Amino acid sequence: MPQAADAPEMISGGHLVAKALKAEGIDVIFTLCGGHIIDIYDGCVDEGIEVIDVRHEQVAAHAADGYARITGKPGCAVVTAGPGTTDAVTGVANAFRAESPMLLIGGQGALSQHKMGSLQDLPHVDMMTSITKFAATVPGTERVADIVSMAFRECYNGAPGPSFLEIPRDVLDASVPVAKARIPEAGRYRASTRQAGDPEAIERLADLLVHSEKPCVLLGSQVWTCRATDDAIDFVRALNVPAYMNGSGRGTLPPGDPHHFQLSRRYAFTEADLIIIVGTPFDFRMGYGKRLSKSASVVQIDLDYRTVGKNRDIDLGIVGDAGLILSAAAQAASGRVDSGAARRKEWLEELRAVEIKAYENRLSRQLSGAQPIDPYRLVHEINEFLTEDTIYIGDGGDIVTFSGQVVQPKSPGHWMDPGPLGTLGVGVAFAMAAKYARPDKEVLCLFGDGAFSLTGWDFETMVRFDLPFIGVIGNNSSMNQIRYGQAAKYGAARGRVGNTLGDVRYDEFARMLGGYGEEVRDPADIRPALERARESGKPALINVWVDPEVYAPGTMNQTMYK
């Protein structure tokens, strides 16, 4: 029936969700449909928000994480109640450890059926609280947009991270007068989170830099999170400081830059007199801080106060935005009579000699013509293939560990890996998000065959939404990183328990789903296959058979096996 002329304008909960997403700048949601959440879809249609429907909720959550990393805006995934939400837990947990801002919206049974055993009813908020920065139930339709904006705000409290909301079905489906609903306006419900750091601490850092003979800096993921690339580059060039990069910080400096170092990090951390760690916790990737020289002065810069000084004592900790702090420190040090930059020439030459020796020692492996293919040859060919516009994604164990030594993105924000949770299965989802958000970029993902198997069916989603990318599978028919540890711990006779996969033709899988597929057994064929995948204009999988008896040094050095 038509509304009476004097009837109030009404709006549903799902449409309020969409309005709140639009206010945050969200232009796409990643989802798998369910009866609890369909009114959100209806709202998204009206607000011009694209709905990308995937085949597994884990992929939806990973894609929201990936979207946040690429765009700098929070990502959003929408899943149904119960198993829909539990399927997304891994993606949320990965975003939590990787400090990636995203919102997961989960359905829930009607409030009118609370505790009655409704379909797919679970205590979602209790489950999500420990892996999010904010988790809540929306109690009424009038509050839907308000609490969505609240969840986004909490994503940026300190270091970024995910939030979770469950919205009961009757709350979502109900309509309320627009005048009674709080609908926050874009740009008016969040403040800037950029903090410049303690000015006294900045001056202390400047003093350390001025007097340092052998400084080095590690530029971690928060350099990209803070979009601090230009400030980081100005810092290392003004003060002549050698820079190492990890996580999303890779690509801050391009390969070949005189301040870009990669293979001499262990040496630098042993010999330096000042080590500045930017946006990287002292977790397992850093040996919990034990890999840093005990005689060096150690400075840690981080968005999160709780991270600074955790697991290792430091000489100086500064909480705040990486760009603002590096810029202020460079300005303070450069203003001194002698910033120390000129006398570091020999230190950079010393590190460059270590770099060259390490590269030359490995070069024969990178150019190996062996069959099965040496993984070093595969990642070498990928590195040579990358352009300045190629976003590189690593999804796997042993094969991606090889790539971390060799592959160097050519531009900032062009490296994606799971982060410290070490989650396998992020690759297709990250490629989906990256290609959607940046259609002008080429996207290349290196998979282990075990990693691709976890979420590979969403290759079909890439085909369905016409999101071309180049997938490369380093196929050794094994979960080889685990296999190495088992053989080392229990002996070769028990090295094949629970870790051996079938010899799967992933190239045929790609063709079956409408993409491009090609098999490679000869290392000389890797580059031509990559070129043909690029030219195909389709989602592609190049199935490269690599030697299962070869392990990455990082795999062999894992402490969990010792």
Automatic annotation (TrEMBL):
GO terms for molecular function: acetolactate synthase activity; flavin adenine dinucleotide binding; magnesium ion binding; thiamine pyrophosphate binding. Its cofactor is Mg(2+); thiamine diphosphate. The keyword Transcription does not apply. The keyword Metal-binding applies. Residues 12-121 form the Thiamine pyrophosphate enzyme N-terminal TPP-binding domain. Keywords: Metal-binding, Thiamine pyrophosphate. GO terms for cellular component: acetolactate synthase complex. Residues 202-328 form the Thiamine pyrophosphate enzyme central domain. GO terms for biological process: isoleucine biosynthetic process; L-valine biosynthetic process. It comes from the Bacteria. Pfam families: TPP_enzyme_C, TPP_enzyme_M, TPP_enzyme_N. This is Acetolactate synthase I/II/III large subunit. It comes from Acrocarpospora pleiomorpha. The lineage of its organism: Bacteria, Bacillati, Actinomycetota, Actinomycetes, Streptosporangiales. The gene is ilvB_2.
